[in-house]
Write a structure and sequence with these properties.
This protein is α/β, with parallel strands linked by helices. Helix content is 37%, strand content 16%. A hairpin with a 2-residue loop joins strand 7 and strand 8. The two termini are 33 Å apart.
């Protein structure tokens, strides 16, 4: 486990938050007063590519390691919050078709929440990773008024995840797939150039947000088109997958091709938030993920462009705010912990 610089011994009961990713797990501890006991990233290898048994072992190691790091007795832990990438059910059963990080057949339909609960002997509260980040952004932004407010979050990464929070609670839906904002189809007028092909998503939809506003959308759709417009660009000589990952660095340098690509992404998210404005009318719109894990001037430019292309009524403009998801690398684990704390508190 990585060592956090400062820890605070708990004085009351706690919950643990575990964020499971394709490479690493991130862990944290949240006490009953709402204070996190670590203020830095604490990781161990997730081993998800080795299959479910190894992955659950690694989550168990992460749980034990964070208790040791924070000098937290096991007897003080009331529950564990867990998040993983989706798609998965509301109860943490991985999709029957697998998922990006869970592509072996052994993962298809695997109950990762139940397996971890059985291993730890503690209640495990599950959210997908985008929902967990959305919950954390909501609680960090609104504080004591979190339960009185609503928000929508778009998390831009390999895909586009999202979260819808109403009255402080993330909306899961009957099958656990509410907040799959990446697969909302949007009007493309004002987003695409004349003659630009309609982007296709891996889910089978055309013209949804993820087909544009994601690393996959850059690789499959946006970058090939824009390289045809900038044939002498340095990225034209790179494999497209590598070029897609390099693009953000060019965006930070205000490269014309990169700004054209990221500009289309920001416009697409603006269209998505416009739909949200007419559907849930949230108090806050949050933007997170790799696209904003960038130089401050670039991420502010991106957020400003999203705001500019979100069409709000005057009353909404006065009431709503736009903000970046804070503590990006820790947001998943912290959101998972907040969800677990809420569950324990609600149970009395």
């Amino acid at each position: 486990m990585d060592q956090a610089e400062t820890v605070r011994t708990p004085s009351s009961w706690v919950v643990v938050g575990l964020d499971n990713g394709g490479t690493c797990n991130n862990a944290t501890v949240l006490d009953a007063t709402g204070q996190f006991l670590v203020d830095h990233l604490v990781e161990n290898p997730s081993r998800v590519q080795d299959g479910p048994e190894s992955a659950v072992d690694s989550l168990t190691d992460a749980f034990a390691g964070i208790l040791e790091l924070t000098s937290t007795p096991l007897s003080l832990v009331r529950a564990v919050g867990l998040d993983t990438p989706g798609p998965a059910s509301a109860n943490g059963v991985i999709s029957s078709k697998g998922a990006t990080n869970f592509n072996q057949v052994s993962w298809h339909g695997f109950d990762i929440r139940g397996a971890l609960e059985a291993r730890l002997g503690l209640p495990v509260v599950y959210n997908n990773d985008a929902n967990a980040a959305a919950v954390y952004a909501h609680y960090r932004h609104f504080g004591a008024e979190a339960s009185e407010n609503s928000s929508v979050a778009a998390i831009v990464g390999t895909g586009l995840g999202g979260g819808v929070v109403e009255a402080g609670k993330v909306i899961r839906g009957v099958a656990g797939m509410a907040g799959e904002l990446g697969h909302v189809q949007i009007p493309l007028h004002g987003v695409l150039e004349d003659g630009q092909p309609v982007p296709l998503c891996n889910c089978g939809f055309s013209g949804d947000v993820e087909a544009i506003a994601s690393l996959t959308g850059i690789r499959n759709n946006l970058l090939p088109y824009w390289l045809s417009r900038f044939p002498d660009h340095p990225l034209a000589s790179e494999p497209v997958a590598k070029a897609a990952k390099m693009l953000r660095g060019y965006g930070e340098k205000e490269d014309s091709l990169a700004l054209a690509v990221f500009g289309q992404q920001a416009k697409a998210i603006g269209k998505l938030f416009t739909i949200a404005a007419n559907f849930t009318d949230p108090a806050a719109y949050f933007l997170g993920g790799g696209v904003v894990e960038a130089a401050p001037h670039f991420r502010q430019w991106f957020l400003n462009l999203v705001r500019e292309h979100t069409q709000l009524r005057d009353e909404q403009k006065e009431a709503a705010t736009f903000a970046l998801v804070p503590d990006l690398d820790m947001a998943g684990a912290r959101g998972a912990a907040v969800a677990a704390l809420d569950t324990v508190a609600a149970a009395g």
